[in-house]
Design brief:
alpha/beta; Spore Coat Polysaccharide Biosynthesis Protein SpsA, Chain A; Seminal Fluid Protein  PDC-109 (Domain B); UDP-N-acetylglucosamine pyrophosphorylase; nine-stranded mixed beta sheet
């Protein structure tokens, strides 16, 4: 307990809390936020007033009540994903790949695609306080994740311009929306400015911040980080939907003629940003939402999978702990695959007690689940994003993560509230899945070098090995002074997006690893 501020003998008592704001807090059972008002300095009272005044109390009250009330509700039965909703690698024909590639390039050249980057996280576990996208994983070029992704956008723009029906090669622009957080926004903007937007036009990049939400006690009351500040936490990567809505960027997309939105996470060194084949597949299927998936490696792999909730229900994601062992091991006799094999994520961090909710018919469950590293490669129609933003806001159900929250009482056990990117799928009237090989499209950068997985070093090697295969397939040769499994060559995204158009650069040439191949 802080000591009350001393006043001169006979001086008037401190002013009471603003009555109107205090009454609003009482309406929602949050008047304890002003419990230490008399002990605050004038400056601290002003800070507390501004902090509380900035909260949307009716919305927060609805979210807290709905999220707490949803605990322990039953979950409807699950079914395997219908085979006709998945495009598998082995069943994908050359003709389909070429057709989808051309369809995607056409949509891009027509200005119908936007790219949406989820980049709210800091590189804390990488040993850096900078945004993750600023991180250099050690490639020969020394490029950051942001630069690799920007140059892939530049490459796709060039490919789309070259493929345009007019054959004029006129310029194509893909608008890049980048979601930051209060912790990464300023540094991200400065990084782009200092690097001249990596060759993109400044006006084709839009930054916006995800929201934060107060942390609450087990009975739903705000936890105070300090006597004059409510403890808050980011609202999860699923906060992108409400952030797009409240920043009016959905309207901005519509004004630009955008119809489709490619959404992905920043910490993947192999992410195929604005993948024309995925765009074309999405358009061809005529669905509201799609996701790239990888195949479950073995029945006990601790990953979440796509399922159908209820008879004929929409697709959604369930955690591995929801799958009975017999279901997890069940084989589809026609395909020889696991019945539940399409995973939305590929690696596991650590167990924790969460409350997780599947937003389908407001049926939810309390369960022990794992924090998962998501592949996080999605495609949505703009119309569907509007529907999701409104639906999630109306239902107001967030996942609850039990955490030790820094507070005026030290560490207080309470709830952090967050939404996940895959919370959108239960709202989709139609969803399609697109299988990709892990080794070609997923090189996560999560942990510092020295960890067992998902390190800059492991991501670097995945990039170098893939690009080395591209060079050899294009007729090039690679020499190396160390074992090839520990090195390789890097192909600049400005040269090739997915291994195409390398023959003119590589055929008959020898490259000594490690090196970067560029124009």
């Amino acid at each position: 307990m802080r000591e009350p501020i001393e006043t001169n003998h006979g001086s008037p008592p401190p002013p009471p809390p603003p009555q109107a704001l205090l009454e609003r807090l009482k309406d929602y059972g949050q008047e304890d936020a002003f419990a230490l008002w008399d002990e605050l300095s004038t400056e601290e009272r002003e800070l507390l007033f501004k902090d509380i005044e900035g909260l949307d109390l009716p919305r927060l009250d609805r979210i807290i009540r709905c999220s707490l009330r949803s605990q322990g509700l039953p979950v409807v039965a699950i079914e395997p994903v219908p085979e006709n909703t998945v495009s598998t690698v082995e069943e994908r024909t050359i003709e389909e790949r070429e057709r989808w590639w051309k369809m995607g390039l056409k949509a891009i050249s027509d200005g119908k695609l936007a790219v949406l980057l989820l980049s709210g996280g800091q590189g804390t576990r990488l040993g850096s306080s900078d945004p993750k996208g600023c991180f250099n994983i050690g490639l020969p070029s020394g490029k950051s994740l942001f630069q690799l992704q920007a140059e892939r956008i530049l490459c796709v723009q060039r490919l789309a311009a070259q493929a345009s029906s007019e054959g004029s090669g006129s310029s194509v622009s893909i608008h890049w929306y980048i979601m930051t957080s209060p912790f990464t926004d300023e540094a991200t903007r400065k990084f782009f400015e200092n690097h001249k937007y990596f060759g993109l036009e400044a006006n084709q990049v839009t930054f916006f911040q995800q929201g934060t939400i107060p942390c609450v006690s087990k009975d739903g009351r705000f936890i105070m980080e300090t006597p004059f500040k409510v403890a808050k936490a980011p609202d999860g990567n699923g906060g992108v939907y409400s952030a797009l809505k409240y920043s009016k960027l959905l309207e901005d997309m519509a004004s630009r003629g955008i119809k489709y939105v490619d959404c992905y996470g920043v910490d993947n060194a192999l992410v195929r940003v604005a993948d024309p084949a995925f765009v074309g597949y999405f358009i061809d299927k005529g669905v509201a939402a799609a996701a790239k998936v990888v195949r479950k490696a073995y029945p006990q792999e601790k990953v979440g999978v796509f399922v159908r909730r209820g008879k004929g229900g929409p697709l959604t994601v369930v955690e591995y702990s929801e799958l009975d062992q017999s279901l997890a091991s069940a084989i589809n006799q026609q395909t020889g695959r696991l019945r539940f094999c399409w995973t939305h994520n590929v690696l596991v961090r650590d167990a924790r007690q969460d409350v997780s909710h599947n937003l389908l018919g407001k049926l939810h469950c309390l369960r022990l689940l794992l924090k998962l590293w998501l592949v996080c490669l999605h495609m949505f129609t703009l119309d569907f994003l509007n529907q999701v933003a409104n639906g999630l806001e109306k239902d107001s159900i967030y996942h609850l993560a039990e955490k030790k929250i820094p507070s005026i009482h030290g560490g207080t056990m309470g709830w952090k509230l967050e939404q996940f990117i895959f919370d959108a799928f239960p709202y989709a009237p139609s969803t399609a899945l697109f299988e990709v090989p892990r080794e070609e499209e997923f090189a996560p950068v999560k942990n510092a070098n020295g960890s067992n997985f998902d390190t800059p070093e492991s991501a670097r090697l995945l990039v170098l090995r893939l690009h080395t295969r591209w060079v050899v397939a294009a007729g090039g040769f690679v020499t190396h002074s160390v074992p090839l499994y520990a090195t390789g060559v890097e192909v600049s995204p400005l040269c090739s997006y997915a291994g195409e158009n390398l023959e003119a650069i590589c055929r008959g040439r020898t490259f000594h690893a490690p090196c970067e191949i560029t124009f």
